[in-house]
């Protein structure tokens, strides 16, 4: 993980002991250093002990934040005493960073409730939140109302908050490539480019023929093709895949990489079913798997909001995501189901990864035209699942997210596959069907539903259902 940068505001209020502000400043600098978080905060000589109380001090702190606005991804507000609620609100208003804000308040000690030592931060935090609400500034809360910066639970809160900041920053500027037309049989992956654009999400389109045309012009002698062939072989063993198919996969890989670099794309959604097989003679699954593994998520069937969901989950967890079908019941267990796709999941999910074909597709296009699909079973691991969708009739973006487990239950089939165990799975399926969500869902090997709920619901302003 790269270092996260947070702006830090230390609240102060005149009639409370100043020494508390001084101690808080040194304490938080130590805590942030341990967590690999870079603080941007006033020097202890810039204002009274580096705290923020008056409007003049708020101006100073806001000016400092503005100088670093490119790197500040969130703001931490510390309340070692009651704090001046207007000082905090004015700083955020003047800095106008439009980033997530976390409010921390120190606990009082029962043995130190005298005038010289009491903090009253419990009460001050409520006042600060009330002011931010009045100013229309979005904010997050720690898991307990008051907690010490030295508390390990607060450290987890802080790391979760930096993950929220990552998701928000990423989602407001994400660029997605939509390659090819939505397959005719997949009305389910329709979406609104305009609603996405209004939320800062840009979609760049390309005709599949342009991509395949460029790939067909490449030869086995091309240095780029040779290089990509080497990297594919390093990623997954060739197995029974013929050399001609490997060459086709590598050529397509070169063109996709160039397209992503040319348009500065963060993610892609690619037409696969069934044009690629019929017109080019291989599957693009391996390339998609490599991209997803390298944190450039790729979804099939031009599922743009599917790849957007992959990107959001990857930002939250720092690990790759996979696009899957809610595919089958698991025997008669109401809380288990089978997750499946032909074979484009990131390698992180496939310890037994093999280069193979796509048997279902093969029944219509010929199995020999489906080389490049991956085969592999995902073992037991933590699960966060979810889906972002545009709801065009309502003009909104809606989301569902939840957590469960991937299990080691027996599963004798082909393709990329996993067994998921999800509490009240039947209720979740009812929700998905009643609210018109797609058959595609995204899985991530993490427990990040709360982070995604905070980032997408509170800060992006989307309609979020947490199962």
Automatic annotation (TrEMBL):
<dbReference type="InterPro" id="IPR009015">
    <property type="entry name" value="Fucose_isomerase_N/cen_sf"/>
</dbReference>
<dbReference type="GO" id="GO:0008736">
    <property type="term" value="F:L-fucose isomerase activity"/>
</dbReference>
<keyword id="KW-0119">Carbohydrate metabolism</keyword>
<dbReference type="GO" id="GO:0005737">
    <property type="term" value="C:cytoplasm"/>
</dbReference>
<keyword id="KW-0413">Isomerase</keyword>
<dbReference type="GO" id="GO:0006004">
    <property type="term" value="P:fucose metabolic process"/>
</dbReference>
<dbReference type="Pfam" id="PF02952">
    <property type="entry name" value="Fucose_iso_C"/>
</dbReference>
<feature type="domain" description="L-fucose isomerase C-terminal">
    <location>
        <begin position="339"/>
        <end position="465"/>
    </location>
</feature>
<protein>
    <submittedName>
        <fullName>Fucose isomerase</fullName>
    </submittedName>
</protein>
<dbReference type="InterPro" id="IPR015888">
    <property type="entry name" value="Fuc_isomerase_C"/>
</dbReference>
């Amino acid at each position: 993980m790269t270092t996260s940068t947070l702006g830090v505001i230390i609240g102060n209020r005149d009639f409370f002991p100043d020494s508390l502000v001084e101690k808080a400043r040194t304490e938080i600098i130590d805590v942030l250093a341990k967590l690999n978080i870079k603080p941007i905060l006033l020097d202890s000589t810039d204002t009274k002990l580096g705290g923020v109380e008056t409007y003049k001090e708020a101006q100073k702190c806001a000016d400092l934040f503005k100088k670093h606005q490119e790197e500040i991804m969130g703001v931490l507000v510390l309340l070692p005493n009651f704090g001046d609620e207007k000082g905090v609100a004015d700083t955020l208003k003047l800095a106008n960073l439009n980033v997530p804000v976390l409010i921390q308040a120190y606990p009082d000690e029962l043995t130190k409730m005298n005038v010289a030592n009491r903090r009253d931060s419990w009460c001050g935090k409520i006042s600060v939140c009330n002011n931010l609400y009045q100013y229309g500034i979005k904010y997050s809360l720690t898991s307990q109302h008051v907690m010490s910066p030295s508390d390990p639970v607060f450290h987890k809160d802080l790391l979760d908050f930096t993950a929220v900041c990552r998701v928000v920053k990423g989602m407001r500027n994400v660029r997605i490539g939509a390659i090819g037309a939505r397959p005719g049989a997949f009305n389910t992956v329709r979406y609104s480019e305009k609603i996405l654009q209004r939320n800062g999400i840009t979609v760049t389109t390309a005709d599949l023929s342009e991509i395949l045309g460029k790939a067909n012009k490449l030869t086995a002698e091309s240095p780029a093709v040779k290089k990509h062939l080497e990297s594919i072989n390093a990623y997954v063993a060739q197995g029974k895949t013929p050399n001609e198919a490997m060459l086709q996969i590598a050529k397509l890989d070169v063109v996709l990489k160039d397209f992503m670099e040319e348009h500065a794309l963060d993610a892609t959604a690619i037409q696969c079913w069934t044009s690629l097989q019929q017109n080019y003679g291989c599957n693009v699954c391996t390339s998609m798997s490599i991209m997803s593994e390298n944190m450039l998520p790729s979804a099939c069937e031009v599922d743009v909001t599917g790849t957007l969901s992959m990107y959001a989950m990857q930002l939250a967890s720092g690990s790759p995501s996979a696009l899957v079908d809610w595919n089958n019941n698991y025997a008669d267990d109401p809380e288990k189901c089978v997750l499946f796709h032909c074979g484009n999941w990131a390698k992180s999910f496939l310890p037994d990864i093999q280069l193979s074909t796509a048997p279902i597709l093969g029944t219509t296009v010929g199995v020999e035209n489906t080389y490049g699909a991956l085969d592999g079973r995902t073992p037991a691991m933590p699960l966060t699942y979810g889906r972002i969708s545009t709801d065009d009739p309502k003009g909104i973006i809606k989301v569902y997210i939840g957590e469960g487990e991937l299990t080691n239950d027996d599963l004798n089939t082909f393709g990329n596959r996993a067994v998921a165990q999800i509490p009240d799975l039947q209720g979740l399926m009812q929700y998905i069907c009643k609210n018109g969500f797609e058959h595609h869902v995204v899985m991530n090997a993490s427990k990040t539903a709360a982070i995604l709920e905070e980032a997408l619901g509170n800060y992006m302003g989307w309609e979020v259902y947490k199962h």
